[in-house]
Structure formats: C-alpha cells, structure tokens
Design a protein that fits this description.
Elements: H1 6-17, H2 31-36, H3 39-42, E1 47-51, E2 57-64, E3 91-96, E4 99-107, H4 109-117, H5 122-148, E5 164-165, E6 169-171, E7 178-180, H6 182-194, E8 202-205, H7 207-218, E9 235-238, H8 240-246, E10 250-254, E11 259-264, E12 274-275, E13 278-284, E14 292-298, E15 306-318, E16 336-340
Parallel strand pairs: 5-16, 8-9
Antiparallel strand pairs: 1-2, 2-3, 4-15, 6-7, 8-10, 10-16, 11-15, 12-13, 13-14, 14-15
Helix pairs in contact: 1-5
Length: about 350
C-alpha cells in the first residue's frame, strides 16, 4: 500500500475547508499566536538556523549590536586618540529548540480501506478537527513566555508591574453608553514613541481594547468632534486566552520583530519518508499562514491499527533583550509592553 498522495491531498483540502461553516473548523481567538507569527512581525528578523551535525536544525542564532551612548564621546579633538573606545561586538544569541508537543489519532483497518476507496474528505476532517487545539496549546505557552519577558517603558519603569492605565472608553451623559476615547490611544502611542518603537505596533487583547477597536471602525465623531476613523494606529489581534491570563482589560503591545515564535519542522527535505507502512510530511495550518506541523502516518509493528501523529518542535525568543547598553535611556526596553485599559 502506498501513501505517497495522502499528505498533499490533506493540505489541498484543508485549505478548501478553511472557510466552511462547521463546528470542527471553528477557530479560537488565539491572537498572540496570530500576531507574533504574522508576516509583518517576522518580515525583518534575520535568523540563522544551525545544523547540529545530523541534518536537523535544533538551534536558532540571532545577531545584533548595541548602540553607542553619549558616555563614549570625548570633547575636543586630541592629536593622539586616547579613548575611551567603543569596542563593537556581535552579540550572538542562540535559542535552542526545547519546546514540543504531539497529538495522536487512531485509525482502524476499515478506515484505511475507506482511504483507499476515496481519500477526499474523511482523513482531512479528522486532521482539521485537531488543529484548533494545537493552536490553543501554542498560544497558551506563548502567552506565558510573553508575560515572563515583559520589558520597560522608556525611563526604566517595568510595564508589567506598573502598566500605564489608558482611558479608551468615555461614558456619555445618558443611557450608560460609552464611546471611543482617542486620548487613551494617544497616551499609548506617546509611550511607544518615547521607547523609539518603529513601525506599526501590534496590540493583543480583549475587553475595552476590543470595544475601542470596534467603535473606531464604525464610528464617526466623538464628543470633541474628532474623526474616530482616524484612530486605531496599530494592528489589533483579539486573544481571549490573554484575558484569562491577565484580566479583562490588560493587554500587550509588541514592537514588530521583538517577540518571535520559532518553529522547526523535522519532516522537511530528506526526512520526508515514504514506505508501505509509513509516510512523513508536513501539514499546513490553513488559519495561520506559514505554520506547518510535522505529520507521521504509520502502522505500529504487530498492530492492527494505524496512527496519525501531529507534532511540532519550537521555541520562543524575546529578540531585543539586552539590546541596549547600561546607561542608555532605553536600557530595559525590549519592545514588549503591557498596558491597562481600565
């Protein structure tokens, strides 16, 4: 029996299923994973994979340099340069692929016979029904890591211990109704500008932040006559798991590139295997562009059933940790900020 066509068929049909309305295809609001693995967040990050000698990548290396400070500047132009000297160094940070998971599916012989007779839907739906739980698992671990790595605002205040409180919703006089308050967003953008955040920030959360985002999409003008459609100068990703971890109105803002989810597939290239009783390949996640899971489909020796195994190896990285020298006004800033929308 040959299984050479199973994995391509699964990938093709997963993409077809992605937009269908079915309970098994419902996707949780895993905004942290979606935001961090978005192409915009990954676009300008230069990562070097390191081969461990067996053909598989198990370490990721990131290179950067710290910027100079005014303490290195000497007044005047002496005839003989005496220092102090800035000694540039390439800071090589290695991140070992230490995290991982697997999820197994069991198929009896009659399932395999059905596969041989018509491979177009049944196994695809079995795989599709598992993908949301994999996203949730990664998202939960990523949130835990993000919280542990939260950095400072400019000036040395840890944003996780003392998050800046933002008034994003403003009550109006009657009916208990609130409207979006652009002053709260302005305070957030000011804090990010002070921290020299480059590009469009990535906001992840729920609660008042979610309400504010929805209001600025559909509203016109607030009580001050401000055109609210001009608000929302950030990319927003909803995450209900972050609500559980932090409380309803706490949320995170990331500078693009600062926080990375680094998956490594072990079933790529020469590690893809086809045999009468086993196939190894990768399965695309139709809801997270670019994300693939390793997929093994095999018959355990001496058993009458078959196993489909979805797995992934990965790590997380706060790339800007240690990015500034002691004495730099941005020392402690790493592009991972917590805010409060109370």
């Amino acid at each position: 029996m040959s299984f050479a066509a199973i994995c391509p068929a699964i990938n093709e049909q997963l993409l077809n299923l992605a937009n269908q309305n079915s309970p098994l295809l419902k996707t949780s609001q895993v905004g942290t994973l979606k935001g961090v693995y978005d192409q915009y967040n990954r676009a300008n990050v230069r990562i070097v994979p390191i081969d461990q000698g067996n053909g598989q990548v198990k370490t990721i290396q990131v290179m950067y340099q710290q910027r100079g400070t005014t303490a290195d500047i000497v007044a005047g132009v002496p005839e003989c340069i005496t220092g102090p000297f800035t000694e540039p160094d390439n800071f090589a940070h290695n991140y070992t692929i230490t995290n991982g998971f697997n999820k197994q599916l069991k198929f009896v012989e009659r399932d395999i016979r059905e596969l041989c007779e018509g491979r177009d839907s049944w196994i695809v739906k079995q795989v599709a029904a598992q993908l949301d739980s994999l996203r949730q698992y990664i998202n939960t671990e990523l949130i835990t890591y993000m919280i542990s790595q939260v950095g400072d605002y400019a000036g040395g205040v840890n944003s996780g211990t003392s998050p800046l409180s933002l008034n994003l919703l403003e009550p109006i006089a009657t009916g208990g109704i609130t409207v979006g308050n652009y002053i709260g967003e302005s305070a957030m953008l000011n804090a990010l500008a002070d921290a020299s955040v480059v590009g469009i920030p990535i906001a992840i959360g729920n609660g008042d932040l979610r309400s504010y985002v929805n209001m600025q999409k559909i509203g016109c003008c607030n009580n001050g006559g401000i055109e609210m459609s001009q608000a929302g100068q950030f990319a927003y990703f909803m995450d209900d798991q972050l609500t559980t971890a932090l409380g309803n109105n706490n949320f995170y803002v990331l500078e693009a590139g600062a926080l990375q989810f680094l998956p490594v597939n072990f079933n790529k290239g020469e590690y893809e295997l086809m045999s009468p009783t086993e196939t190894r390949s990768t399965i695309l996640d139709p809801m997270i562009p670019g994300l693939e899971y390793d997929f093994n489909f095999f018959k355990p020796p001496g058993c009458s059933y078959w196993v489909g195994q979805l797995s992934l190896n990965y790590t997380f990285a706060a790339l800007y940790n240690g990015g500034f020298q002691t004495g730099d006004i941005l020392d402690g800033v790493n592009g991972i900020f917590q805010f409060n929308a109370a």
